[in-house]
Write a structure and sequence with these properties.
The chain has 287 residues and is α+β, with helices and mostly antiparallel strands. It contains twelve helices and seven strands. β2 and β3 form a beta hairpin. The longest helix is centred in the first third of the chain and has 23 residues, at 2-24. The strands form three sheets. A three-stranded antiparallel sheet has the order 1-2-3, with helices on one face. A two-stranded parallel sheet has the order 4-5. α7 crosses α8. It has helices at residues 2-24, 35-43, 58-68, 78-86, 90-100, 102-110, 123-135, 171-185, 206-216, 232-236, 261-268, 273-278, and strands at 139-147, 150-157, 164-165, 191-195, 224-228, 246-248, 254-256. It has a domain at 123-238: P-loop containing nucleotide triphosphate hydrolases (Rossmann fold, 3-Layer(aba) Sandwich).
Length: 287
């Protein structure tokens, strides 16, 4: 009995002495590590993805991989140097792009697109702006801008500091701008039909507007403009050979009535063409 008790005491003392040694690892100079072992350790994931286990660590590794996802090995030594040498820094990439794309940059600057908020400078739009200034002397310039994907048309007036959006312009100004744009962009052998262009326009603008139409579509050219109107003031601004009254006959059919200048000669000495229309002397009235 005494021998068993002595053996148990010795076993307990050995356990107490050996357990701290196992937990802290062996003391003294570390054992040399072979080249194969070093290569294996360098290829393993970082130690932060492992848990300390005095027993079999295969279960701990699988549990860590499931919780934190697969850990990517960190390159070290020559492999890391290769990756850094292959990657281009921002300065090097910029220098390389400048050397390779210098001719293209010059071409793009020569053909730069219209910047938002800047005045329109292409020839068709410049002609439209000049014609608009002829009719509306308070207009200074036109420009375009972008607002949340929408193209805005801006009109700068002389009496205002900031340009005015198209939504805030009068209906007459927008109508006049649309007519001038249609006139300027009309192709050869084109036919432009305008129904009642007098809406929203001052009667004093009818004469200059018809002058622009005659300039753009002279007699004998391949372009034609057809206007319909109920305004005697617009008829006053036209020439007799440019006006064709339209009315309905007894059967309800539409009838065109060409004007005879010789017949109207004595009337035009004292009356304008629009006044003769009101007087029922040139047709174009209900019977």
């Amino acid at each position: 009995m005494k021998e068993r008790l002595t053996g148990a005491i010795i076993l307990v003392v050995l356990i107490v002495l050996l357990v701290p040694e196992l937990l802290s690892g062996p003391k003294g100079p570390s054992a040399p590590v072979s080249a194969g072992a070093a290569a294996t350790s360098s290829e393993e994931p970082p130690l932060r993805s492992y848990t300390i286990n005095l027993g079999d660590d295969s279960h701990a590794r699988s549990a860590s991989a499931e919780s934190s996802g697969p850990a990517m090995p960190q390159p070290s030594g020559p492999e890391q140097s290769t990756v850094q040498a292959g990657a281009s820094t921002p300065d090097a990439a910029q220098k390389q792009s400048e050397e390779a794309g210098a001719p293209q940059a010059a071409d793009s600057s020569a053909q730069a697109p219209q910047q938002p908020g800047s005045a329109i400078t292409t020839p068709p739009y410049q002609t439209i702006l000049e014609n608009l200034r002829t009719l509306l002397d308070y207009v200074k310039e036109m420009s375009t801008d972008l607002d949340r994907g929408r193209v805005l048309l801006l009109l700068k007036e002389k009496s205002f500091r900031d340009p005015i959006e198209a939504l805030a312009l009068s209906d007459g100004t927008l109508r006049l701008l649309a007519i001038l744009t249609a006139l300027e962009t009309m192709p050869d052998h084109g036919l432009l039909c305008l129904e009642e262009p007098e809406h929203g326009l001052h009667p004093l603008l009818f004469g200059p507007l018809l002058d622009l139409v005659r300039e753009r579509c002279p007699v004998g050219s391949s372009r034609q403009v057809l206007l319909t109107t109920h305004s005697p003031d617009l008829v006053d601004a036209a020439e007799p050979e440019e006006v064709v009254p339209v009315e309905r006959d007894e059967t309800g059919s539409t009838v065109l009535i060409p004007l005879d200048r010789e017949h109207l000669g004595k009337w035009l000495k004292n009356y304008r063409l629009g006044e003769l229309w009101r007087m029922r002397q040139i047709g174009g009235v209900q019977r």
